[in-house]
Structure formats: structure tokens, C-alpha cells
Design brief:
Elements lengths: L2 E8 L4 E7 L2 E16 L2 E12 L12 E15 L2 E15 L6
Length: about 100
């Protein structure tokens, strides 16, 4: 599986979710990161849907927080406002908070 490094901002607060696997409940965290690429006069976002095991950083993963994510990914397309954007689903191996949350 291919690895990716993302540096971007959370588009919303992270959420704690759970699922039942055979005989136990597994908790995990999901969040979305937008990474902007400058193309001429325009910022073109790439959106990443990230999933990671439950950790102690959930309370810090708030909308606008800049993060660096390293993980494995899969590709799809997202349609927003009549435009198509690349979307990558990422299984995070590590997440690092970068700087302070954008105000």
C-alpha cells in the first residue's frame, strides 16, 4: 500500500466512532484535512478523509488545526458545488499537531 505525507488544516472537528468486530468494540477517530495547492491565482484544495486508532489527541483535533499526517491511502473523487476534487481516504500511522489552531 502506498504511503502519503499530508500537511493541511482540519475542515471540521474530529469525531470518535466505533464499530463491533467479532466479539469486541473498536473505537477510532475520523477527520478531514484540506491541503491547498497554488495554481496561478487560485488555491486548489485536495481533501483527505483520515481514520486513526483512538488516541489522546482527539480533543486537540479541532476545525482549522494544522496537522501533519503520515499514512496509507486510497483515491476517489468528491463533488462540491458542481466541481470535482480529488479525495484520498487515509489510514493514519501518525498524526502531529503543527503550530496553533487557526483563529
Amino acid at each position: 500500500m502506498a504511503k502519503i505525507i499530508i500537511l493541511g488544516n482540519l475542515t471540521a472537528d474530529a469525531e470518535l466512532k466505533s464499530t463491533v468486530k467479532i466479539d469486541r468494540t473498536v473505537e477510532f477517530v475520523t477527520f478531514s484535512v484540506a491541503e491547498n495547492e497554488r495554481r496561478g491565482d487560485e488555491n486548489v484544495p485536495t481533501y483527505y478523509d483520515v481514520m486513526m486508532g483512538k488516541t489522546g489527541v482527539l480533543e486537540y483535533l479541532k476545525k482549522g488545526q494544522k496537522v501533519q499526517v503520515i499514512g496509507n491511502f486510497r483515491f476517489s473523487m468528491t463533488n462540491k458545488d458542481g466541481r470535482s476534487f480529488p479525495n484520498l481516504q487515509v489510514n493514519a500511522l501518525s498524526v502531529e499537531l503543527v503550530g496553533k489552531k487557526a483563529e
